[in-house]
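Bug #2210: token dump truncated for Histone?
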Amino acid sequence: MTQALQELEAQLRDLNIKLSEAKQKEKQAALAAFKEQVELLGITQQEVLSALGYIVQRKRKAPAKYYDPTTGRSWSGRGPRPKWLEGKDLDTLLVERAAKTWWPGDDQG
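Reproduced locally. Full output below:
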């Protein structure tokens, strides 16, 4: 190997070491700033992990729209109709909604 190539490889090693050290310093500075913001705003570990995509929120199960009191089965109305509903009138199996909330000024009785 020639003298020039050996010198260039030595320079490259030195530059790679300097680059690695600079990246490490930047990383530490960014983490310190992040930690300061997390503490200042009171962000929880759960919120950080969720924001970074490490924790995925599960979808809520849809509430039952139809209910068969004889079998105890229910269906949200989403997706294909279950076999237990075949031949039955859906209107008779509708889950009653919560009572209407009362607002001041409503005269309902």
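Output looks complete on our side. The chain has a mean pLDDT of 86. Marking as cannot-reproduce; reopen if the truncation happens again.
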